[in-house]
Amino acid sequence: MDIKLLNPLTLAYMGDAVLDQHVREYIVLKLQSKPNRLHQVSKSYVSAKSQAQTLETLFEMNWFTDEERDIVKRGRNAKSHTKAKNTDIQTYRKSSGLEAVIGFLYLDHQEERLENLLDMIVQTVNER
């Protein structure tokens, strides 16, 4: 199956889970805190606003390959039938674009590139 042919919102669905799991592992090992504190910290990494800001930073750095940039744009431009929660539609779409490329790299088994992206996301948020 050609992963690029999947619906970009399907890729974003997968990417959301992959990013959430990576962030949870990172903060659990870093903070060793109570679940409520872990949840509060994780929001700074996985909220739509944070993801949109991270995407903009990565674009400014020209971090993505051409193929990844295409996936991000497809994810960002996809028409969702669900309403964005706690954010505006542009922010929601940018976060969907970032999640789509994460989902693509995961499903395409590009483990090294995926790990680099996830680490870059954490680093970018930490530098804010």
UniProtKB/TrEMBL annotation:
The active site is at D16. It comes from Staphylococcus borealis. The keyword Magnesium applies. Gene3D superfamilies: Ribonuclease III domain. It is found in: Cytoplasm. Its main location: cytoplasm. Belongs to the MrnC RNase family. This is Mini-ribonuclease 3. Involved in correct processing of both the 5' and 3' ends of 23S rRNA precursor. Processes 30S rRNA precursor transcript even in absence of ribonuclease 3 (Rnc); Rnc processes 30S rRNA into smaller rRNA precursors. Keywords: Cytoplasm, Endonuclease, Hydrolase, Magnesium, Nuclease, Ribosome biogenesis, RNA-binding, rRNA processing, rRNA-binding.
